[in-house]
User: Fold this.
Amino acid sequence: MLAALAAAGALWFGLPPLLGRLEFFRVRRLEIRGLRNLDAEVLARALPIGPRQSIFDNLGEVERAADTVGGVASATASRRLPGTIVVEVEEVDPVALVMHRGQLVPVGAGGQFLPFDPTAAAPDLPLIDEADSLVTGFLCRARDSDATFFSRIGGAVRSGPDVIARVDGRRYLFRPDAGADVIQAVTAVAQDLERQGRPWVELDARYFGQVVVRRAAA
Assistant:
């Protein structure tokens, strides 16, 4: 019995390298899934898949190469017999636009430039002055906490250790680590002020447990 198991194990681990030498198992097709903004040809050129590549070759190098492409958050590679490699990609979501070298460029939550067409990938995102991870990190949390509020943010800027978001001509002041509870509290205060018809220009949510309403900017 043990001898049979040992033989089966040897066959299991030894068979792929042997089959990999056969022309039938050469990679003939690359399938890329999950792309929304990246160019498939750009990604394909970055992958180390040569003309003599076997379907049984280690796919770790393919995954690592895909991970280095700008705009890719993660990538996994798998094989489909007899000759197809499938690469599943998750793209970085843009959270803002920044002017860079005379062009608007989408930026991710980590402050990284993304090689996406802004007219297609990020037409309505907030404008920021620079690719600052403190600001983009806040915008990412705002998007995940309250998509409606995020969609109204026209721009954001760092102010010392804090973030100022510009919404409908007014200013919202936040700690950069403001969570969903803070953002929801601020939007509730803004809605209440609107219902009462009370004028204001700035809401300051940097203080624990309270939102400061200002009729003139600080």
User: Anything to note?
Assistant: Residues 36 and 65 are 19 Å apart (CA to CA). The chain has two domains: 27-91, 94-214. The first strand starts at residue 29 and ends at 33. Residues 2-19 form the longest helix (18 residues).
